[in-house]
Amino acid sequence: MTDTRRRVKVYTLNEDRQWDDRGTGHVSSCYVERLKGTSLLVRAESDGSLLLESKINPNTAYQKQQDTLIVWSEAENYDLALSFQEKAGCDEIWEKICQVQGKDPSVDITQEVVDESEEERFDDMSSPGLELPPCELNRLEDLAELVASSLPSPLRREKLALAVENEGYIRKLLELFRVCEDLENREGLHHLYEIIKGIFLLNRTALFEVMFSDECIMDIIGCLEFDPALPQPRRHREFLTKTARFKEVIPISDPELRQKIHQTYRVQYIQDMVLPTPSVFEENMLSTLHSFIFFNKVEIVGMLQDDEKFLTDLFAQLTDEATDDDKRQELVNFLKEFCAFSQTLQPQNRDAFFKTLSNMGILPALEVILGMDDVHVRGAATDIFSYLVEYNPSMVREFVMQESQQNDDDILLINLIIEHMICDTDPELGGAVQLMGLLRTLLDPENMLATANKTEKTEFLSFFYKHCMHVLSAPLLANTTEEKPSKDDFQTAQLLALILELLTFCVEHHTYHIKNYIINKDILKRVLVLTASQHAFVALCALRFMRRIVGLKDEFYNRYIMRNFLFEPVVKAFRNNGSRYNLLNSAIIEMFEYVRVEDIKSLTAHIVENYWKSLEDVDYVQTFKGLKLRYEQQRERQDNPKLDSMRSILRNHRYRRDARTLEDEEEMWFNTDEDDLEDGEAVVPPSDKMKSEEDLMEPISKFMERKKLKDTEDKEVLGKSGLSGRQNPSFKLSFSGSTKTSLASPPSSASLNPGSPGSPGSPGSGARSSPPTTAVTTKGGLVGLVDYPDDDEEEEEEDDGESKEDTLPPSKKSKLSS
Q1: What values do phi and psi take at 743, rounded to 5?
Q2: Where is this chain compositionally biased, Acidic residues type (predicted)?
Q3: CA nearest 787: which of 735, 732, 727, 746?
């Protein structure tokens, strides 16, 4: 059986001065060689991993609180706490800490020595203890000075705390307070304020337990009313006794629980309202007060959760139709506070907490509450719903899907949430923003479960688009029946912007569900009506919605856009915006630029064919001219598909030749028998042999006719019968009588002489032609051979004026037809 004495929870204090749970495990103390000292080790009970490894430092101040807590600071602003399941385990570890530090285990705090001179330290260590002046009216000033002088020194703080605790000094001070208040002794009351404030800064649990007891706490608050810096005293006690009233919406039978609730409320009030805002130096001195409140809340939630009768009565009255509205409002406010307290629980306890609420029927209860007319009650119910959604959205989704099998769409929980979002009366739509965030969480596929037997995403999205989407989009559809929004006031615009934001989220994260809905209900056309709104933020939301759709590059969406001419309202908004350089202008241009850069052919053709006249005069960006160029290139390829395929072949062979393909072709080339080839033939890749000369010549000749040889250098070259110097890149392609083609580097003048290695008459010159080559000639005879090298050699080839032909061995030079 597991040793429960050593079972602990590890907590750390975060930047917001809240305790974060780090896990549950079992603590032990042993010597750690790496740390060179006795250390506290906590290993997780789930997997045995190390949750905590902390060396017991002789100079670290450890505090023992409430019999089951040990708190200390590892470094500046890094506080740790161990919460023990049993007091015996806490005592055992405390004795070990005190043994290492050489302290008496009866103390609740060990000494800390920092930032003190050796002389001060010696003085403090040599003195046996701190002697307090008699608790008399005429000695209050001396006592106030003693407290103020002790606070900067950790040792003196410790000795002062021990003296105050041992002598029962707090109760004596409170008796003096009552005397001073009766005598209206303002000076004495001011001294008592400083003394009590200083005792808070001693940061000691034992003193807090005395101060926060039922018989003392109201007098402590009374002392803190008389701040010397204020002209008149505060009236905190009057507020707590007359204004603030404790309401037991469900009778609490446990007196200990009732006392703990009262105490926690008052201590929280002291921290938030009574004590002055602590300075940077004082903030850490109140860490024990934070811890006191935190662990009290944990205890309250645990005690309420264990009281089955209490929770059963609570939910029975919440859902009972006979419960009057005032009573139900009190119950809802209590439940909201209860859920807020649960945030202090560690994760596994929070799991059990929300599971308990779910089993008790919290979601059906919320459905009843959200149907009430009282705005405050609905607001509290929304807060409770947000706790549930943020903690476990799958639980909420499962409930609403089960509910849909029994109830009509109008009373479904999610539809109630949507209706409250739509009907929010707040001019700033604060509640609607909160509800929209909750809907977004429920619709987010990232937090949906997928198991072998069922897929939550498919089931829930099918449910939502069938039963709820029409409710969400109703305000949008109702307001966009004409060419302009029928209502264009600020509050309506804000609501439509929220709905559009949620729909845009759906476009990004849902696939066929939202696509079917948009196309079947013509949603995009309705949304683009909002580009005519007088509110720029709504027009931008509409553009963002369309931009997300275009960004998917889905042909179903593209055909829908083209069929309904949905770029028309966008172009119209662009023209109406005029020459103003604003966000609307930039957003529209960016959408067209995306179509151009991504080369979305169908949309490019649609835009140019239908809207070019409206866009051709826009010259401050090149987006629209670029779209026109894209369109013309598409048309050219459509008119000459064979030319397009030829370009592809040439492009692939010239620039994008795979190294492995090249090796295979060279291997075939070297294996070819020279005797198998006749004079005038050239070796070509097998893929090129499939093309006949007629098929290739037709698109090539059309291409050259369109070009018309505009370059003057080309015209000069065409008039010559031989090669003189380098050729201009513009050239004419023709083919010999053979069906095979050859492409080689331009030979030098020497290489054309009969008998030279590269000449047609040279032995073996034709059989070794490079595979991916095509002969380049003119009417007047051989003009030159142009070799297109691989990518990595192109730059070097441009700088080299000499022919590549000269560098090839004779066996690799093409046989040329004269």
Answers
A1: -130, 120
A2: 672-681, 788-803
A3: 746
Nearest one of 459, 317, 473 to 401, comparing CA atoms: 459
> Could you read off the pLDDT of 621-632 as tens digits, one per residue?
999 999 999 999
Contacts of 347 (CB under 8 A, 6+ apart): 21
695 residue type, one letter: D
CATH architecture of 4-101: Roll (2.30)
Q: What is the dihedral of CA 791, 793, 796, 799, to 10 degrees?
A: -70
DSSP category for residue 15? T
> What is the C-alpha to C-alpha distance for residues 529 and 525, in angstroms, rounded to an integer?
7
- Buried residues in 640-656 as b, exposed as e (16+ CB within 10 A): beebeebeebeeebbee
Give the separation between CA 616 and CA 652, rounded to whole angstroms. Answer: 35
Q: What is the per-residue pLDDT for 810?
A: 44
Pair of tokens at residue 598: 């991504």
Residue 27 has φ and ψ, to the nearest 5°, of -95, 145
- Cα(521)–Cα(61) distance, integer angstroms: 69
Domain boundaries, the chain: 4-101, 139-244, 553-640
Spell 434-461 as b/e; 16+ CB within 10 A means b. Answer: bbbebbeebbeeeebeeeeeeebbeebb
CB 271 within 8 A of CB 289: yes
CA distance 660 to 32: 60
Alpha-carbon distance of 344 to 114, in angstroms, equals 32
Residues (pLDDT < 50) of the chain are: 1, 112-127, 653-662, 669-670, 672-694, 696, 699, 703, 707-818
C-alpha distance across the termini of the chain, in Å: 101
DSSP letters spanning 799-813: H--S-GGGGS-GGGS
> Distances from the Cα of 147 to the Cαs of 63, 140, 144, 204, in angstroms?
20, 11, 5, 14
Give residue 776's pLDDT. 40
Q: Which of 270, 268, 261, 179 has its CA nearest to residue 220? A: 270
Q: Residue 454 is encoded by which pair of tokens?
A: 């069922």
The predicted structure's pLDDT at residue 603: 94
**Phi-psi region for residue 102, left (φ > 0), alpha (ψ -120 to 50) or beta?**
left
Q: What is the pTM of this model?
A: 0.59
Asked if 218 contacts 240 with a C-beta cutoff of 8 angstroms, the reply is yes
Burial of 772 per CB tally in 10 Å (0-12, 13-18, 19+): buried
How crowded is residue 349: how many other Cβ atoms within 10 Å of its Cβ? 17
The pLDDT assigned to 288 comes to: 82
Residues in Cβ contact with 424 at an 8 Å cutoff, skipping those fewer than 6 apart? 430, 431, 432, 435, 495
pLDDT at site 802: 44
Q: 749 is written with which tokens?
A: 């003048």
Which are the contacts of 515, defined by CB distance < 8 A and separation ≥ 6?
554, 556, 557
C-alpha separations of 127 from 11, 130, 166 in Å: 36, 8, 17
Q: Distance of CA 430 to CAs 498, 502, 506, Å?
A: 11, 16, 22
